[in-house]
Write the structure tokens for this entry.
Amino acid sequence: MPAKQRRVALMGFRSVGKSSVTIQFVENHFVDSYDPTIENTFQKTLKIRGQEYSLQVIDTAGQDEYSVLPQSYFVNIDGYVLVYSVNSKKSFEVVKFVYDKLLDMKGTINGVPVVLVGNKCDLATERYCDNIQENECDLPTKREVTYEEGKRLADSWKVSFMETSAKEHHSVTEVFTQIILAIERAEGNNPDQNKSCILS
């Protein structure tokens, strides 16, 4: 069975870890510092339920609520991973804006294949700045978006939701598995059915 070609774009506010999630998925290592202003494309082959997928992952430059989203983000993209950071309420608001824009541009006939991701869940439980004086710590380590808020938003969109930690490789591969399954469903294939032969 030949590999199916799929193009997936990661979108969200700057510094939510889109590049970290992408590089952790493609290259299996964590990068903390990465130029957030450039767009990059990565390749990875993933096998899901016996089918190989040749995945092109577009790591977009950060968006905000005033962004004019380039036309290229809507053409020839099969599915979208919308990423916010659990320690940034602002980034959570931005994914809502991006989702609305996607619906405007793509139309809603079959719905747009989307997975909602709350990244940096490791930050919500850990203090990175214990050895630094409080006023010098510019990393917000407090959770600003609860798991339940993320789940509620995803449920209202009828899409999959998960929290990830690119740093700890927590649920990163699962994100890309879920977006491929969402694309398959949107195309009318049902990857959830057992592919067993029924003899009548």
